[in-house]
Structures are given as C-alpha cells and as structure tokens.
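Collaborator request, handled under Task 6.
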Amino acid sequence: MNRRNAIVLAAAAIIGLFAVFLVNTWFNGVQQKQASAAATHPLAKVVVARQALDFGTQLTDANLRLADWPEASVPAGAFTNLPDALKGGRVALRPIEAGEPVLVERVSGPDGHASIAANIPGDMRAVSISVSAVTGVGGFVTPGDVVDIFLTRQIPGEGASGDDKMTSVVLENVQVIGVDQQADEKKTEPKVSKTATVLTDLYGAQKLALASQLGTLSLALRNVQNQEVGGTKVVTARDLGGAGLRIAGRPSAPPAPSRPVYMLPPAARTQQASATGPVVPRIPAGPSMTIYRGVADTQYEVQPYGLR
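Structure tokens returned to the collaborator:
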C-alpha cells in the first residue's frame, strides 16, 4: 500500500467517525427534547382504533391498540387500557376512524347490545315521528343529520274553514339518530322511510308527542355547522301571497216564471163551490188580466177579438 492510499483510508475513517458523532449527537438531542417535552407535557395511554370500525363491529385485540396521548388532552370517556375496552364484547355504535380514540358513548355496554338506548345521554330522550317521502325530505335524512321539525295544522276557531291552516316550528337543530331501524351513520344513501328517531330533551319530547296528534310533522334538513336557532314565526296562507284574490260564486239560474192562475169571478166561484165543491184553479190557455177590487184580485181570461 503506497502513501497515497493510506492517506485516503485515514481520511475516510475520520469522516466516518465524524458522521457517527453527528448522528449520535442528533439522536441524543432528539431524546433530550422528547424527555423535556414529556416532562412538560406528560403522556397517557389511550385505546385507539387500529383500523376503521363500522357500525356494529365488535371490538377485539386485532382492531384496537394503545397509543400515547397528551395527558391534558385525553377525551372524556376514553379507555385507558384494552381490558376495559374489550370487556363483555363491546361493539361500535358509531363509525370510528383509524387512530381515533375509542369513547364510551361510541360503543355499546359490556353486554355487547348495540342499541340506540346505549347511545343516548342521560339528560336526553329519543323520540320517533312518522315521516313520508315528502315530509322526510325524499329519504335524504340519514342518521347523524341535523333537522328542524315543522307542524302543519288547522287554525283553531269557529270561523276557520278547512283551508285555514298554519305551519309552525316545533323544534330546531335536533339530531337524527335513527331512520326506521337503521342507526349507522355511514348508511348515507337516500331511503324513503316511515319513521325518524331524533334526540331531544324531555320538554322537546313532550312537544313532539303532542304535535304528532295535532297535525302533520315535516323535517327540514339543515347544515350541521349552522347552530343558530330562533327568529321563527307562524306561517299562514296569507304569507303565500294572493290572499286578496277571490273567485265570486256563480249566479244561480233564475226561477222559472210561474204562470198565472185563472180564477172565476167571486159570484161564479160561490155558485160553483155550492154546486160542485171547492174551486179548482186552472191555468189560462191564452191571455189573461187581473182586476183588483180593494185588496181582492180577480183574474180573467181575455178572449181574442171577434171570438166568443
């Protein structure tokens, strides 16, 4: 080996040792930063989904894992160990994405019963109302959507007719948690249903129960990011425009003219009544005239001129 090769090998060794030194220094710096961050922001273990979980999926060791989570940011209701999350064969009541913490309100109870009741907060109620293709927004209302609920009913009062109706807002910004017997939020395809189950408080549940007996309930789909409520009013037919327009009734056909009844003179009527009984009036066959004497009137048939 000549002198030149020895110099090259020595330089390569020095560069390699310097690179190792730099890498070790970088890793030590990262570890120190992590240790400092851990000391400043302690971490906790949280159960998260290893893969996306659909509605009704049973929780197992294969689809769950423990992950580090900032202790100060652990979501309420999160599981901190796998045995509690797997206890009793729990199933997902709502879709859970991969890496998302598994929360108590998103899974069933320890018995594994995937019911809507297990997903209702303690101060809320689930109420079902009847809907159709029209009142249910053509089937586009699905679990997880937010709606307003309208009531259309007859205007009370003795003077109201069958066409005097009004529409008022019963509830605003309520969540739909089930359509018919489907509670899976990933089932988003339109489906004409007969019932919709909404989540509301006790007072709202009472209003819906009464409103369903008074008229027709309708749903109005709204943006989930719009949380504004209030400012509603009752709508009547006058708000639709054209309230002053009226079609007059058609006049009835005039009554047929009555033909005058021909009566004999009083003396003749008295004579005929004594001879044959009550006088039977008859309709004159030709022209006639009526002569009034005081308050009594007598009608005579007029013979054409020249005839007797």
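The cover message to the collaborator said: "The two ends are 173 Å apart (CA to CA). DSSP finds four helices and ten strands in the chain. Please let us know whether this matches your experimental observations."
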